[in-house]
Design a protein that fits this description.
single chain, about 80 residues, alpha+beta, five-stranded mixed β-sheet, two-stranded antiparallel sheet, 7 strands, globular
Length: about 80
């Protein structure tokens, strides 16, 4: 399945992109997607590290790591405070 990833503010700056389409095996949770991205290493690992203050959204609604995603869904990652 394909999911749409969005990255905002300092997360976007660290990973070098604001969006990406990712093909993943189904079903996955938002937390599992985060772990897949962390496994890329480098700035991905730093920006999305466990224990780092980070907000997540599923289809533009705040969520937690246990939220299950479906084909075509959007998952977003951003710091707790973002500017306009």
């Amino acid at each position: 399945m394909k999911i749409n990833l969005r990255f905002f503010a300092s997360v976007r700056e660290l990973v070098g992109t604001g969006q990406e389409v990712l093909e993943v095996a189904a079903p996955l949770t938002v937390g599992e997607v985060r772990n897949l991205l962390i496994a890329r290493g480098g700035n991905w690992e730093y920006a999305l590290a466990q224990g780092r203050a980070l907000r997540m959204a599923h289809n533009q609604v705040m969520c937690d790591a246990g939220t299950v995603i479906a084909d075509g869904d959007e998952v977003a990652f951003f710091p707790p405070v973002t500017g306009g």
